[in-house]
Hints:
Helix 2 crosses helix 3 (102-115). The mean pLDDT is 93. The two termini are 23 Å apart. This protein has a 4-stranded mixed sheet. The protein has helices at 11-19, 57-77, 102-115, and strands at residues 22-26, 29-33, 44-49, 88-93. It is built from 3 helices and 4 strands, in the order H-E-E-E-H-E-H.
Amino acid sequence: MLPKPYRLKNKFAFKATYKVKNSAHKGGVTLFAGILKKEDFPTRVGFVVSKKVHKRAVKRNRLKRLMRESYRLLLKSGDLGNSQKYMSLVFVGSEKALDKSFSQISSSVKALLESI
């Protein structure tokens, strides 16, 4: 689980991140990046899988857990690239990513963080 200062929980923070329209897509995972930081504080990250993707909560939560764990491991290793310049990041899972393994999701998340 991500430490508390890295979690994006506020509904308005999610909306503000989407409003910037800075996004990238890879392998069924979309990354939305917020505005650039002015001060030095941790980048907050949110993970979303809509009910439209799959009606079963078990499937949606599994995809969120995989994305969250891959980001946590990248954070631990310090291999986040330029993503730390942004105030907030939101990872959105789609139907294509539901049946993928952890290594495939992890490579998608890493590629998105390098490309943004």
